[in-house]
Amino acid sequence: MTRLSGATAPDVVRPTTRGIIHLGLGAFHRAHQAAFTHEASLLTGDTSWGIVGVTQRSSRVAAQLLPQDGLFTLVEKGVGVERASVIGSIIEVISAVEDPAAVVESIGDPDVRIVSLTVTEKGYRLDPATGRLRLDDSDIVADLAGRAPRTVIGQLVAGIALRRKTDSPLTVLCCDNLPHNGRLLANVVADYVARGQDSDRLGRWISENVAFPSSMVDRIVPATTEEDRSWLHEKTGLHDEALVVSEPFRQWIVEDAFATDRPAWDLVGVQFVADVEPWETMKLRVLNATHSLLAYLGGRAGYVTIAEAVADPALASLSRRMIVENISPTIDPGLNVSAYGEEVLRRFANPNLPHTTGQVAMDGSQKLGPRILGTVRDARAMRGPTIWLAVAVAAWVRFVIDETLDGRVLDDPMAGILGAAASSPDPVAALLGIERIFGTDLGAESEFGLQVARAARLLETGSVAETETELS
Ligand code: CS2
């Protein structure tokens, strides 16, 4: 079988030098930032924006990409759309598991001007209630004690400390689904620096030389399957272990606040704006919140994919009511939330992109805050309705309880705590009592907590349609 590589795809344009270190070399990065960067190089002929991709949690992606010289195919599949292109922007791959020191050295390399990140919500070791670094996290404690850093924050700070020696500014570009993601990352970096060596001087150097622009990223990219690989092989005769499949839609809105230069992303559809907040809020609160609602309700109803879940009229109806009645009032009145919501539901319905409910259901403890609970807090401050948001949280609660009762361990960094709560005599109250998720204001005894408990009771015995009728 012929494998995709530099030898079998010699015409693909490749950068020659490192410009970007990307932490979190998952499918999303490859289908999003790596594709934009590839297209920008194609257009301008600038060869200085090679990406060094760092795999954070396992060496699997490194093992897929290394024999392919970093090349991979991006397949876009939509209704009536099917195109494949080979992306050449990743020129080196490092496994942080095997070589944490190499990650730090690369971030320190003065040729590099941007460090971008897609390490998912849990990668930031955040305390969701305060938005600051969890200083009791055992990996953070171990990194601060001086080992070759294993956490993303530890790697970033150690790399930045090296850059200070050559006085090389840096742009750190967070591309994860978190509100004010640039500011949030700047804060956790500051928290880490404050506990480390030479904290005053390093902190000052960072505030003068490192920028943390916020960005909103959007593209649906399911995990690649063996069927995808066989499909590509049949089409092209090439075997590609690192292939990624995405929807045609893509969006990247970036705060125009860099400390360095950047690829010509603006020429290939990236929008640079003074303030990302309105975009980011709408995307997280509408797209990601509805995704989670469909993942939990759909998973419980036995739907394997998000497309199947959104095709169920009861689930689609609930999604629309959550968007229009509860979320929309919390969003900038200048934005057309209903139209955006309809477009999102159409994207979810893409039948050619089997995105599983199981994948979106992962890491719920990290996702509820950024996607749903911020909206609840804003809605409550405005005395607006929150009932459908309560159903979304109740769907997660039921999902956690069902999974636990069925003897499955959740795919969630708080799996132990969630499993214990779900096995307690009053699992709904125990789950809502987890302050690291719900804070002290949205717990079991709060007005919102009571709404969640009611919805959870209705969902336990009734259908989604019955729950909606009962709560209307
Ligand atoms: C999804 C996101 O897995 C999830 O939780 O909601 O990855 C979603 O597909 C992207 O944010 C779309 O841009």
From TrEMBL:
The lineage of its organism: Bacteria, Bacillati, Actinomycetota, Actinomycetes, Mycobacteriales. Residues 19-266 form the Mannitol dehydrogenase N-terminal domain. Residues 275-455 form the Mannitol dehydrogenase C-terminal domain. Coiled coil: none annotated. One of its GO terms (molecular function) is oxidoreductase activity. This is Mannitol-1-phosphate 5-dehydrogenase. Keywords: NAD, Oxidoreductase. Its EC number is 1.1.1.17. It is an enzyme of class 1 (oxidoreductase). It catalyses: D-mannitol 1-phosphate + NAD(+) = beta-D-fructose 6-phosphate + NADH + H(+). Belongs to the mannitol dehydrogenase family. InterPro entries: 6-PGluconate_DH-like_C_sf (IPR008927), 6PGD_dom2 (IPR013328), Mannitol_DH (IPR000669), Mannitol_DH/Oxidoreductase (IPR050988), Mannitol_DH_C (IPR013118), Mannitol_DH_CS (IPR023027), Mannitol_DH_N (IPR013131), NAD(P)-bd_dom_sf (IPR036291).
